[in-house]
Amino acid sequence: MEVRDLPSGSPEQPVTAPGDRELPVEARGLWGDEADVVRGARSVVVGHHAATELLRDLARRADAAGTRVSAVLGRPVRPVVLVPGSTAEAARVAGVGSVAGLAAVADGGRVVVVPEYFGRLTPTGRDVVLTHELTHVAAGTERLPVWLYEGFADYVGYRDAGLPVRVAAAELAAEVRAGRLPGGLPGPEAFAPSSRDPVGLARAYQEAWLACRFIAERFGEGTLVRLYRDAQTGGVDRGLARLGLSAGTLTARWRDYVRDQLA
């Protein structure tokens, strides 16, 4: 196992230097002596047959993603990122049948990067994906409707990305300009991966994102975070009731918001 720190001269990367006993279990046991480890200021990136420059780039981006997620959740976030050597290995590490088409996945307390697809993203896309998946890791997933689970992660991912709404939601914007507003918040079936309808899957994520963005803009970001936590403990209907909303009222106001943002 080879352990490297990011260059100490990088101004945005105040590098810590923990001992080997503080490295994550993934570094010590997953790939043994074949693992390379790069540590950022608050992140650890563990790679298997991955290029050193990719690991260093991921450590920098993971540090930044951790800062973004921490700013929303209000508590420290220390990312652990695994970089398998192939798409098939990424699926095995994540414990899923396939990661085809996915740039990264959240798996327990870590983010698993799929090099083949992650490498095709723009720099902004890499930041959004890492922040999205790290939000899943840090915020938890219990008892959540899928629109809130995915929409909240996208809200955090896009929050500081600097992308115009119509660019980030290009597929949904095309539908709205054609006079087709979504009828309701996307359910689980809308997020089922399908190579036959990648545009539909993209729209589902965009619809969920704009639902959470609407709540944050209308009621405040802290209220969106509380809704997420309330939904985990008592269900989303109870959380919405505290805002004076029902599922139907939220849907109606969200549809108006989508039209205003994208028409």
From TrEMBL:
Top-level taxonomic group: Bacteria
Protein name: Basic secretory family protein
Annotated region described as Disordered, given as residue ranges: 1-22
